[in-house]
Amino acid sequence: MRLVNILLLAIAVIAAAPSAAGAYTITLTRQDIQSQIDPQFPITEETLFSSVTLKNPKLDLTEGSDRIGIIVDAAVSALGGIEAAGLVHIDGALRYVKETGEFLLNDATARSVEIEGLSGMARAKVAEMLTAVIRDYFDKNPIFRLKKDTIAEAMVMNALKSVTVKDGKLQLELGLP
What we know:
This protein is of the alpha+beta class. The chain has a single domain (2-175), classed as Super Roll (Bactericidal permeability-increasing protein, domain 1). The protein contains four helices and nine strands, in the order H-E-H-E-E-E-E-E-H-E-H-E-E. Strands 2-3-4-5-6-7 form a six-stranded antiparallel beta sheet. Strands 1-9-8 form a three-stranded antiparallel beta sheet. A hairpin with a 3-residue loop joins strand 4 (67-78) and strand 5. The longest helix is centred in the last third of the chain and has 21 residues, at 120-140.
């Protein structure tokens, strides 16, 4: 509800402002985004040869970056007796899909894998498995979605000009279409 009120205010300001102003910024907090990420986890992908489970996501917004991070607990098992668990830092470029109002992670990858007890070769194989699962999932599943069912969010979907990370928050810059 708080987000809808902010969006309505932003639209009112843009509509009432002279064209010289032309833009307005809406801030999405970590909590706003985290609340849409949490229900997507745990993520489990199983094949004949391996199993990967990702859980307990924590959003990581890096100042000045166009990339979004999510730190997760990961558990991996694979043929050859590989059993491993640890932390994985997922990293991807933010992509906005105007038609659906979705924010996706492009080129998502396992940027760092902190798993104890694996040799260099096994660690590289686990990182490769994790990246495949991460990329497949986040290419199709948004980390945040504007809803079309409210007038405010539907209008924001059409007025969104850019998205940046500032002060640990996501900044949505709106402008008149």
